[in-house]
Amino acid sequence: MSKSKIYSNKKIFSSELEDMDIYSFIPDNPYLLLTPGPLSTSKGVRAAMLFDLCTWDSEYKKLTQKIRKKLLLLATENTEKYTAVLMQGSGTFCVEAVLGSVISKNCRLLILSNGAYGKRMEQISKRLKLNYLVNNAAEDRSPDIILLEKTLYENPDITHVAFVHCETTTGILNPLDEIIRVIKKYNKKIILDAMSSFGGVKFDIDHYGIDFLISSANKCLEGVPGFAFVIANIDEIKKTAGVSRSLSLDIYDQWREMEENDGKWRFTSPTHSVRAFYQALLELETEGGIDVRSQRYRINQQYLVEGMEELGFKCLIEKPLQSPIITAFLYPKSKIFNFEKFYNDLKSNGFVIYPGKISTHETFRIGNIGKVFKNDIKRLLEVIKVIKFW
Question: In a 10 Å sphere around its CB, with 0-12 CB exposed, 13-18 middle and 19+ buried, how is residue 156 labelled?
Answer without folding.
Answer: exposed
